[in-house]
Inverse folding.
């Protein structure tokens, strides 16, 4: 699986990148069809709460799944995205294995 992490309006720490890579590796083990993952991290209005936007886009053969969340921290938002992606991946798997 090819992974691309893009940070907009800030510099992502190594710890945050490792967190994202570790979580996506777990998803990739269960869903071997994932070809590419693109993660976009963005800070919107730095002085407000819930100002972290996370977009996760997974490319699969014959389709794509995407989740977008806004949260107080990138880790929290990324976990919320993964919850949504897991459901979408289950639907994709059911649809493409029958």
């Amino acid at each position: 699986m090819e992974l691309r992490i893009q940070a907009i309006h800030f510099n992502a720490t190594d710890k945050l990148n490792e967190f994202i890579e570790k979580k996506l590796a777990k998803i990739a083990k269960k869903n071997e069809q994932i070809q590419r993952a693109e993660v976009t991290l963005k800070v919107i209005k730095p002085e407000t709460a819930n100002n972290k936007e996370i977009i996760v886009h997974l490319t699969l053969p014959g389709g794509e799944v995407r989740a977008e969340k806004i949260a107080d921290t990138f880790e929290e938002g990324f976990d919320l995205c993964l919850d949504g992606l897991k459901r979408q991946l289950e639907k994709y798997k059911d649809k493409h294995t029958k």
Strands lie at 2-8, 36-43, 52-60, 63-71. The chain has a mean pLDDT of 91. The chain is about 40% helix and 35% strand.
